[in-house]
Design a protein that fits this description.
Blueprint lengths: L7 H7 E5 L3 E6 L2 E6 L5 H11 L2 E8 L8 H13 L4 E6 L11 E5 L3 H8 L1 E6 L4 H4 L10 E4 L15 H4 L2 H13 L2 E4 L2 H10 L6 E3 L15 H8 L7 E5 L16 H12 L3 E5 L18 E3 L6 H7 L2 E4 L4 H5 L6 E4 L3 H7 L12 E3 L2 H9 L3 H14 L8 H13 L1
Parallel strand pairs: 4-5, 4-7, 5-6, 7-8, 8-9, 9-10, 11-12, 11-14, 12-13, 14-15, 15-16
Antiparallel strand pairs: 1-2, 2-3
Length: 415
């Protein structure tokens, strides 16, 4: 009898199946056969569409490759539910059990054949990121279907898509990103600035709607009990003020830029802003698993797995970040934002900025000493004035009505 564990390499030379970027590679007796994913998923799913047709009231949502029930898609979904519209709502999620989706929404496993079926038979797709995972497996969109792209940042300073050399240098990624862009029917923008980013950083952009971002509607309304719920989740007192630290990722996935001295920072917050403080840390999706057990002690709480970033921003009293677009969401609250960025020159060279970091209303610290100085010297009157001017200069039109405008568009499409 062959011991397959001991002779694994030998067995693999005889027969193996390996997944690559967009195909399966079958090896048999030394011969390799490449079978594109589209023959595994695309032909089956698209065949079902031809048989069953398009469901006119079905909408399929996703948030950053199925990460959670959150982002712009969440707030569009809830506007639909509030209006009690007769739509079939499907969410593509990596976790279909612990996902916070409300009653009336169907969770489906992200990337599954079932997800393909939902996409190819839905009238509308709504997403805040590419559908590259599906396109490389054969997903296409016919003329009856509508794809609405909301993107996941707003007024962001860091360059994206074809504006970033190390992304477009990957020819396979670029191929699918171009296809995704060309399939998009509507782009949701919140400013003249973002409209220009869409035009210059994506491919074949058409039908930009300056509606505002639905996820930012939260900052224009009162949400009773939200802070209580979050404090209860993390077992902290509701009378504490909250500082949220939410940096973006580095392409190298290095941890070095996140070295804040939270002990001296907490002391500075107490002196400048009074009260007792709780420090929450939220890492980017690409770092969550690697940083799962980091920054978890009696002074700092890791909230990286909390499902909705906008809710954390809503309850926070102060935000610290580096180059994340969450700063430009949070600034709508007029609450203080501080930049802690130890690698500005390196990041600018590798990723690039649409405009100088120094032109934002946020004070910049390259080390802990400068961060404490910026906290001590913070002037709320000057800051609010600079925020107002910044939003005006970028042509921002956020007013808390974005979800309403998007759902009005959806009703028009379906109706």
């Amino acid at each position: 009898m062959i011991n397959f564990k001991k002779n694994k390499k030998t067995v693999q030379k005889i027969f193996s199946i390996v997944n690559t970027w967009d195909c399966k590679v079958v090896t048999f007796l030394g011969f390799k056969i490449k079978i594109p994913f589209k023959y595994f998923y695309g032909l089956i799913a698209n065949g079902l569409r031809k048989i069953l047709g398009i469901v006119n009231n079905k909408i399929v949502f996703s948030n950053y490759m199925g990460e959670s029930y959150g982002g712009n898609s969440k707030y569009i979904t809830e506007e639909i539910l509030n209006r009690k519209l007769p739509f079939e709502l499907v969410w593509l999620l990596k976790d279909t059990k612990n996902n916070n989706v409300p009653k009336g929404v169907k969770p489906v496993k992200y990337g599954s054949l079932k997800a393909f079926f939902e996409l190819v038979t839905a009238k509308i797709w709504i997403d805040n990121y590419h559908k590259i995972d599906y396109i490389k497996k054969g997903l296409d969109k016919n003329s009856q279907q509508i794809y609405i792209q909301t993107w996941h940042g707003s007024l962001g300073i860091k360059k994206i898509e074809k504006s970033v050399f190390n992304l477009t240098s990957d020819s396979m990624w670029e191929k699918y990103a171009i296809e995704n862009s060309k399939m998009t029917n509507f782009w949701i923008s919140n400013s003249l600035f973002e409209t220009n980013v869409y035009k210059n950083s994506f491919w074949d952009v058409k039908n930009i709607k300056e509606f505002g971002h639905p996820q930012n509607d939260i900052f224009f309304k009162t949400h009773e009990g939200l802070k209580d719920n979050i404090c209860r989740t993390y077992n902290i007192s509701t009378d504490k003020k909250i500082l949220l630290y939410a940096p973006t990722f580095r392409d190298s996935l290095s941890f070095d830029p996140y070295d804040i001295n939270f002990e001296i920072l907490e002391d500075a917050l107490k002196r400048k802003f009074d009260g007792n403080w709780c420090i929450m840390v939220r890492f980017h999706n690409r770092l969550r698993k690697r940083m799962k057990n980091s920054y978890q002690n009696n002074r700092v709480i890791n909230v990286s797995n909390y499902h909705d970033m906008q809710e954390l921003l809503y309850v926070a009293d102060i935000l610290i970040s580096d180059y994340s677009s969450c700063m430009f969401d949070f600034m709508l609250t007029k609450k203080p934002v501080f930049i802690f960025a130890v690698d500005i020159e390196k990041y600018s060279e590798e990723r690039g900025f649409y405009y100088p970091l120094e032109t934002t209303p946020f004070s910049i610290a390259r080390n802990n000493k400068e961060l404490i100085t910026n906290v001590n010297n913070f002037d709320i009157v000057k800051y609010k004035s600079e925020v107002e001017q910044f939003l005006k200069d970028k042509g921002c039109m956020e007013d808390g009505q974005a979800s309403k405008r998007v759902v009005d568009l959806i009703e028009k499409i379906i109706g």
